[in-house]
Each structure stands twice: as structure tokens, then as C-alpha cells.
TrEMBL record:
<keyword id="KW-0282">Flagellum</keyword>
<keyword id="KW-0966">Cell projection</keyword>
<dbReference type="InterPro" id="IPR025669">
    <property type="entry name" value="AAA_dom"/>
</dbReference>
<dbReference type="InterPro" id="IPR027417">
    <property type="entry name" value="P-loop_NTPase"/>
</dbReference>
<feature type="domain" description="AAA">
    <location>
        <begin position="9"/>
        <end position="176"/>
    </location>
</feature>
<dbReference type="InterPro" id="IPR033875">
    <property type="entry name" value="FlhG"/>
</dbReference>
<keyword id="KW-0969">Cilium</keyword>
<dbReference type="Pfam" id="PF13614">
    <property type="entry name" value="AAA_31"/>
</dbReference>
<dbReference type="InterPro" id="IPR050625">
    <property type="entry name" value="ParA/MinD_ATPase"/>
</dbReference>
<keyword id="KW-0067">ATP-binding</keyword>
<dbReference type="InterPro" id="IPR025501">
    <property type="entry name" value="MinD_FleN"/>
</dbReference>
<keyword id="KW-0547">Nucleotide-binding</keyword>
<protein>
    <submittedName>
        <fullName>Flagellar biosynthesis protein</fullName>
    </submittedName>
</protein>
């Protein structure tokens, strides 16, 4: 392995608009990776609206902020969820990631670097939209999965997200997932609406990575505070997401993974974050 790089893949799951099912996708994708015997760490960085704990029905007594503050070690805050899924819960204190002193940075990096040998895949559930925090969490990852729906507002906001990201990094590769589609054809039309514009105006590669059909079992599982892939293993949404997970495991985006420590080092690096200001 090349010095300075890791075998750990970091996947940022994001969206231009809230309410498109991003957190459900991130959580259930992580659950499917566990079926492939992958060691998965699910990190909740949806600041202000963190709800993976609610989605999976557990109470997060400690969060990442407790590690930064020196009150807890990483091993103390990791929640072991269904099927051995490891979860790092969020808190509003995570917003301090870009304003850490040297001691806090050391705690953060040491906490996560200790997990590099225990994890194969890190899935980061970011917030929606184009705030500087969201952009830094997305661009620090090796792989980006952008979730949208066929709704016009979701399509517009997905394009806005792509436009901002493409200005921050050249030759960016974004994987697009269409959620809550009525049909395969509707998902393909949604993708064409986005890519027809991005090809003309943006320096970015949009890779259509699949779709999830509307499935009544998904909201039922959400109300039960259960993972839909676990509660309804044979339902349509589970089948669709399983195909997407298999594609992730088969494909490599060609970048060298920086691992968990490298991911959080990018976020906390002041020079890196400064380049992500909305007006830059």
C-alpha cells in the first residue's frame, strides 16, 4: 500500500434538497455492505438534523463532540447497531470541526486513525444543501453519492449542488441515485434532465448509479425505527439498493483512499476549508 494512503473507502451520501431519503439511503446502504461481510462505519454528520439514531431506534448518550472535548474516547461513543454496524452519532458540536485547536485535532485524528485497521468502508451522512460544512464533508470523501428524486425542486437543487461542487474541484466524479421513482423510465428521465445540463456547462462527470422505486414498506420501516433492508429483505426498495451496493463493491473510482484519519484531517484543515466558502 502506498505510504500515506489507506484501503478504507469513504463514501459521502449527500443531497441538494432535504426530504429525498438521503439518510435512509446511507443507513440501509451501510446495512447491505454488512451482508457482504464488510466492516462498516456509519458517521452521522447531518449537522442540526442528525437522526440516524432515531431512524435505527437508539439513544446516543455520547457523540463525536465528546471525543473532541476530551471527555470520551472514540471507542466509548461508537454505537454497535444491527448486524454489527458501527455508528458514530452526531451532535451540534461537530460544527466545531473546522475550528479545532491542536489538542482537539490530535484527539480527533487519533480517535479515527485507530479505526483504520478495523473498518473497510466509511459512509458519511452529510446534511442537505450547499453550506460550507456540507461541502467540506462531501469533498473530503473519496466517493460521492448524490441522492435526488424526480420532483422538479429536487432536480433543481441537485443541479445546484453539482454546480457548486464542480467549482470546488475539477474533473469531479459524482454518482447519482434517483430515489422514490415510480418507474425505471422516470428515473432515467430524471437523470437525463440533470446530465443534459451538466454536460453543457460543467466540468464534472455524472455517473448514473441506479434508482429506488417507491415502496410502501420504506415509510413503514421508518415509523418502526427499523432498517427497511432488515425489516423487509424481499421488498422492492431492498432489491434496488442491493444492486447499487453491488455496483459500489465492483467499481473503483480510481482515487487513492486516504482512510478515516485522512478524511477528518481534510475537514479540519483550515486551508482546505477556506477554499470551500460559498463565495470562492
Amino acid at each position: 500500500m502506498t505510504a500515506g494512503f489507506s484501503k478504507v473507502r469513504t463514501i459521502a451520501v449527500t443531497s441538494g434538497k432535504g426530504g429525498v431519503g438521503k439518510t435512509n439511503i446511507a443507513t440501509n446502504l451501510a446495512m447491505i455492505f454488512r451482508r457482504y461481510k464488510k466492516r462498516v462505519l456509519l458517521v452521522d454528520l447531518d449537522l442540526g438534523l442528525a437522526n440516524i439514531d432515531i431512524l435505527l431506534g437508539f439513544h446516543a448518550e455520547y457523540t463525536l463532540h465528546d471525543v473532541i472535548a476530551g471527555r470520551k474516547e472514540m471507542k466509548d461513543i461508537i454505537h454497535h447497531g444491527p448486524d454489527g454496524l458501527m455508528i458514530v452519532p452526531a451532535s451540534s458540536g461537530v460544527e466545531e470541526l473546522t475550528y479545532l485547536n491542536e489538542m482537539q485535532k490530535d484527539r480527533l485524528f487519533k480517535g479515527f486513525s485507530g479505526l483504520d485497521d478495523e473498518v473497510d468502508i466509511v459512509i458519511v451522512d452529510t446534511g442537505a444543501g450547499i453550506s460550507s460544512n456540507v461541502l467540506s464533508f462531501v469533498l473530503a470523501a473519496n466517493e460521492i453519492l448524490l441522492v435526488t428524486t424526480p420532483e422538479p425542486t429536487a432536480i433543481t437543487d441537485a443541479y445546484a449542488m453539482i454546480k457548486v461542487l464542480s467549482k470546488k474541484r475539477k474533473n469531479l466524479n459524482i454518482r447519482l441515485l434517483v430515489n422514490q421513482s415510480c418507474s425505471k423510465e422516470e428515473a432515467e428521465i430524471t437523470v437525463k434532465k440533470i446530465t443534459s445540463v451538466t454536460r453543457r456547462f460543467l466540468d464534472v462527470n455524472i455517473e448514473y448509479f441506479g434508482y429506488l422505486l417507491r415502496d410502501p414498506n420504506v415509510p413503514i420501516a421508518t415509523r418502526l425505527q427499523k432498517s427497511f433492508v432488515k425489516e423487509y429483505p424481499n421488498t422492492t426498495a431492498t432489491s434496488c439498493l442491493s444492486s447499487i451496493a453491488a455496483s459500489f463493491l465492483k467499481k473503483d473510482d480510481g482515487t487513492q483512499a486516504l482512510g478515516i484519519e485522512g478524511y477528518f484531517r481534510r475537514i479540519a484543515d483550515e486551508k482546505y476549508v477556506d477554499t470551500l466558502s460559498p463565495n470562492s
